[in-house]
Design brief:
With 116 residues, this protein is α+β, with helices and mostly antiparallel strands. It has two domains: 28 residues; 83 residues, Copper binding periplasmic protein CusF (OB fold (Dihydrolipoamide Acetyltransferase, E2P)). Helix content is 22%, strand content 45%. The protein has a seven-stranded mixed sheet. A hairpin with a 4-residue loop joins strand 4 and strand 5. The radius of gyration is 20 Å and the shape is elongated.
Length: 116
């Protein structure tokens, strides 16, 4: 009985791992990287930074976390829930962006306003 249960558990685990691998195409998502720069433009779906004379464009979505210093504490927003990204981040702000590469796109995971 114990052998049958162990075999069943092993098979279920193998199937679960196979299914998870199939959903990601067998590849793990890229590592989170970060950069800082000055915001050149910001819209509901993208953020453009200027860094060292180069422009870097990041895609933003509802999973992007946005951090900005408030009057008395840090404020954390998911950009579509309480405020739009354009309400929080403005051109000229210095920001730190944590992002993941997805093909040639850079998807912002977190945007933190460092200096206004």
């Amino acid at each position: 009985m114990v052998r049958v249960m162990c075999l069943t558990l092993a098979i279920a685990t193998a199937i679960g791992i196979s299914a998870a691998g199939a959903q990601t195409g067998g590849r793990l998502s890229s590592k989170v990287q970060s950069t800082t720069g000055v915001v050149k433009t910001v819209s509901a779906s993208s953020l453009t930074l200027e860094r060292g004379g180069n422009e870097i464009i990041f895609a933003v979505d509802s999973a992007t976390r946005v951090f900005a210093r408030g009057a008395t504490r840090d404020l954390v927003y998911r950009y579509e829930r309480q405020h739009k990204l354009t309400d929080i981040v403005k051109a000229g702000d210095r920001v730190m962006v944590r992002y993941r590469l997805s093909g040639s796109a850079m998807n912002a995971v977190e945007v933190r306003v460092v200096q206004r």
